[in-house]
UniProtKB/TrEMBL annotation:
<feature type="domain" description="HTH cro/C1-type">
    <location>
        <begin position="25"/>
        <end position="78"/>
    </location>
</feature>
<dbReference type="InterPro" id="IPR010982">
    <property type="entry name" value="Lambda_DNA-bd_dom_sf"/>
</dbReference>
<dbReference type="InterPro" id="IPR001387">
    <property type="entry name" value="Cro/C1-type_HTH"/>
</dbReference>
<dbReference type="Pfam" id="PF01381">
    <property type="entry name" value="HTH_3"/>
</dbReference>
<protein>
    <submittedName>
        <fullName>Transcriptional regulator with XRE-family HTH domain</fullName>
    </submittedName>
</protein>
């Protein structure tokens, strides 16, 4: 699955793999020492929404912005493209 995220903050990133976003969200969450529940509370999303993102089933740009803010990383950190 690939997700068109070129509308996020006008970054013009094109398509990015859902698995890339998923693994980056999980890696940043774990490095911050957050459980899924901690991140959900911090960014105001449900546990199931965080799980869906980390499973590569969702990459709603609005949710990614909220997650990036909660993790105190730029949204671009969650949107690097596959090599």
């Amino acid at each position: 699955m690939s997700i068109a995220l070129n509308t996020i903050d006008g970054l013009g990133l094109g398509a990015i793999s859902g698995t890339t976003v998923a693994s980056l969200v999980k890696a940043y969450r774990e490095s911050a020492g957050y459980s899924i529940e901690d991140l959900a509370v911090t960014c105001g999303l449900a546990n199931s929404e965080i799980s869906a993102i980390e499973d590569g089933n969702d990459a709603d740009p609005a949710k990614l912005r909220r997650i990036a803010t909660a993790l105190q990383v730029p949204v671009t950190a969650l949107l690097t493209t596959d090599s």
